Amino acid sequence: MDSFTFDSERITKSAILSARGNRSVHYTSNTSKNLFARQCTTVEDATGTIRGAIDWKERTFEIMGEGGKKESVDLLKRKDPSQTFATSTRFWRWSSQGEEYKVRYSNSTSTWIVTVLSTGELVSELTSTIERVFKSNTLPTWNISRDVRNETERLFILMVLLYSETKRLDRQD
């Protein structure tokens, strides 16, 4: 797994640093807001080039570059039809040829877990900020399997996790 640490508790406005070696910036997330709501969250690479965007108002994901496109969140995710009770588990797929991912939140570990639906293989995790009373809060961490080599899929998984965690935090407030 490749490991990254956010430099801020606010995952939608943070540098995402390599957790090994020189702790270089791998991605940066930035969010623009108006007076009332989030507008757009962008994900930039280390050179400052915007690679992906979440438009909160229009409810779309956009990935720039090769294999890039803009899609509605409603077309990218689905709920598990077998679940009758409310659950945080969702299924996400960027393209019709791409993998479908099962994304669920574990309350016990404060972690989003992403697995390949067809195989159950763990491909990514996002551990939320853990708030503490007597110690410093932990910063969020992101791990992604080295088997996910396609940059579009890596960006998609990161954006799904940013989206899912932000929505979870919104429901808490």
Number of domains: 1
Provide the structure class.
alpha+beta
Residue stretches low in confidence (pLDDT < 50, at least 5 long) are none
What is the CATH-assigned architecture? Beta Barrel
Short description:
The chain is of the alpha+beta class. The chain has helices at 73-76, 151-172, and strands at 2-6, 14-18, 25-33, 38-45, 50-55, 60-63, 69-72, 77-79, 90-93, 100-106, 111-116, 122-127, 141-144. The relative contact order is 0.18.
3D architecture notes:
The protein is an alpha+beta fold and 173 residues long. It has helices spanning 73-76, 151-172; strands at 2-6, 14-18, 25-33, 38-45, 50-55, 60-63, 69-72, 77-79, 90-93, 100-106, 111-116, 122-127, 141-144. 15% of the residues lie in helices and 41% in strands. The N and C termini lie far apart (32 Å). 28% of the residues are buried.
Name the features.
173 residues, alpha+beta, Porin, 13-stranded antiparallel beta sheet
Topology record:
Blueprint: E1 2-6, E2 14-18, E3 25-33, E4 38-45, E5 50-55, E6 60-63, E7 69-72, H1 73-76, E8 77-79, E9 90-93, E10 100-106, E11 111-116, E12 122-127, E13 141-144, H2 151-172
Antiparallel strand pairs: 1-2, 1-13, 2-3, 3-4, 4-5, 5-6, 6-7, 8-9, 9-10, 10-11, 11-12, 12-13
